[in-house]
Every structure is written in C-alpha cells, then in structure tokens.
Design a protein that fits this description.
165 residues; globular; Aminopeptidase; seven-stranded mixed sheet; alpha+beta; 27% strand
Length: 165
C-alpha cells in the first residue's frame, strides 16, 4: 500500500535510507561517503525544506520510501528514493515513482543521483527520464538542491518533461 508518510514514520524512513544507501559504499567517491549516510538532523531538514515522503507499506511495515518536492509552478523534484535492501527488485520503486508522477502537476520533473549509481540512472531512464547536459546539471543542482560543490561534481540530473496539467 502506498501512502503519504507522517512524523510517526520518521525512524522507519531513516532506517530505509541508511539501509539502502549501503549500495553507495565503495561506488561513490570515498570523500562523499559517510555512515550513517543520512543523519536524523539531515532528514528533518529535508522535511522542513518541503520534501513530502511517500512509502510502500506491507503489514503496516515501511519497506520503501520516495520524496517529492514541489519547487514552484514549473518544477518538481523527486528526492530520496530508497527501498530496503531485502526488498529490492520487486517493483516497489516503480510503484512509488508512478504514484509520485501522478501527484506532480508541473511540466518539469527532475531527479538527482550519484553519477556512479548506474543502477539508479538505469531505473530513472526506464521511467522516461533523460540525462541533462553537464552544464544544465550544474545549474539545476545549484538552483534546486542544497549540496556541496563536490557533490555537484559527482552527480547527474535526469529530467522528465511533460505537458502542463
């Protein structure tokens, strides 16, 4: 079941993010890796900045999360897409992104991920997203994300353009 997550799901969201982010260890630049991957303070800041989390629950247990952040009338960001390691490859990410895409009413939808996370890039391509140029990636990451310059250098942005709804 897909549902909007609430404050009561906070610890479960954090657990899923940090469990699934283990896939980055040894793949992303070592200077960008840390454990835990996301601290509680960072997650609180993401929520405070407007990221709304949705999740897949099974037997009332959260097994996958994905965030959506509406920036303005033209731009929506897909943020923090993670599935418990033990539940990956079951189509949960696809169900979540399809749900979030029905919520997104803007003509431009962007997602950022690590350049080295080839599996994530492949997933977003499968959903119809296309990589933007390096110049556009740099502009978008600096405009819509609050990340260090080193992360800008080692990330990619994918876009999905649609007719305004």
């Amino acid at each position: 079941m897909i549902c909007r997550l609430t404050d009561t799901d906070f610890e479960s969201i954090l657990n899923i993010v940090n469990d699934a982010a283990e896939a980055y260890k040894g793949k992303i630049p070592p200077d960008r890796w840390k454990a835990p991957y996301m601290a509680a303070k960072e997650l609180k800041e993401e929520i405070r900045s407007g990221v709304q989390f949705y999740g897949c629950k099974e037997n009332n247990n959260l097994i996958a999360v994905m965030g959506i952040q509406v920036i303005d009338d033209d731009v929506t960001l897909i943020r923090h897409a993670y599935v418990l390691t033990s539940r990956q490859q079951e189509g949960l990410g696809e169900k979540l992104i399809n749900h979030l895409l029905t919520l997104a009413k803007t003509p431009e939808i962007y997602v950022g991920t690590w350049k080295a996370a080839w599996w994530a890039v492949k997933f977003y391509h499968k959903q119809g997203f296309q990589l933007v140029s390096t110049q556009e990636k740099n502009r978008l990451l600096k405009k819509y994300w609050n990340i260090p310059e080193r992360q800008v250098e080692t990330s990619v942005v994918l876009e999905l353009k649609r007719q305004p709804q």
